[in-house]
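Appendix B, record 7
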Amino acid sequence: MSFVSKEKTAPATWKVTAHIEAEGFRAQLDAAFAKELKKIALPGFRPGKAPRAMVERRYGEKFLFEEALDALLPEAVESALKEAALEPQFSPEDLDIPKDQDWKANGVDFTFTVVVKPEVSIENYKGIEVEAPSPAVTDADIDARIHELQHRNARQVEVPDRPARDGDIALIDFRGLLDGEAFEGGTAQNHELTLGSGQFIPGFEEQVVGRSPGESFEVNVTFPEEYQAEHLAGKPVVFEVTLHELKAEELPEADDDFAQEVGGEDCDTLDDLKASIAKELAESKAKDAEEGFNHAVQDQLAAMLEGEIPSAMFDRRTQQNIEMFLERIQMPLERYLEIIGEDGAAFEARMREQSASQIKIELALQKIAALEGFTPSDDEVEAEFARLAEQYKVPVARVKYAVPEEDIVNDLNRTKALDFVKAAAVKKEI
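Structure tokens (predicted):
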């Protein structure tokens, strides 16, 4: 088996031509015949004793050729890649074996396509300026959380003596008409609608504001162009609406009694509640700030990366991400798209953009690790294997069997590179 030639057909994409020698192919044909002969019985011969010429006349040589190729190709491809000095990112594709060859006499010529790690570059990654959210907790943050707790513990009271306004809960009947005809899903009785919440299509809630309980009126709106129900998308409709009653939230007073009710045993006063909220917000905002900083650094590195990345890498990662996403949500893609009102092309484009970002970040961090000469120690590699074993509650040997050491090294190098860039970055809090 031997490598013949390689031709670059696209960024980081090579077409490889290789050859399986005739002698090796014939030997594999003999092995295939010996294996299959045990299953073949011809009239007048005991099982496994029929002459090869008669077997080939009866069944043809094709089945032996295919079995011989199946046995030889994996090693032939691996050998060709080694001789061509190509390290594939994933399994070779587009295998082509011309049929008009005398395989027995001349051997087998074949071609395949392989995508390798792209050549990339990155500069000026030390001391980059990065905007990140501030972890500081302000009085306004604390007041907003207390206001949120007040809303959670509010009670609804009827307000019969004034017109509706934003924030009110309106109890309404409505019937939607398209060209004078009621349409499916456009009718309901005693529906509770919080005005100003944006639950209904744009323009509906605004036309309820100012109306009083007992009124019947028409609401004229137009469905958005991207509305999921195609027969309604972009169409003007009329809703016949009756407003039965209005309710408003009555918030509890933010005082010591309120603090004891919502804050638990450690909150005797409103000041205690504020201190507890401040501590909780500080932890939450510090975590959010660190995550925001991480994302901002990686986004900048992806934007700074130079080099042509083969589309096959984006295609493969996109498909993997979609499969993992569907496994996580445990529902068919069609159902998910129906729920969120998005078409398949838009969803795939969004997933592809996410996948492209992931790949660029990984390549950027790998390049930085190489430029800085990062190499994890044996102890660090072993510690990572042990961490994964603990995480998944399996023996270390099983993790080592399932995860190549090269993947562990790459992950550790990317982590080192990210920590290196973050430590040198200039953080601008926003």
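Remarks on this record: Residues 270-304 form the longest helix (35 residues). The mean pLDDT is 91.
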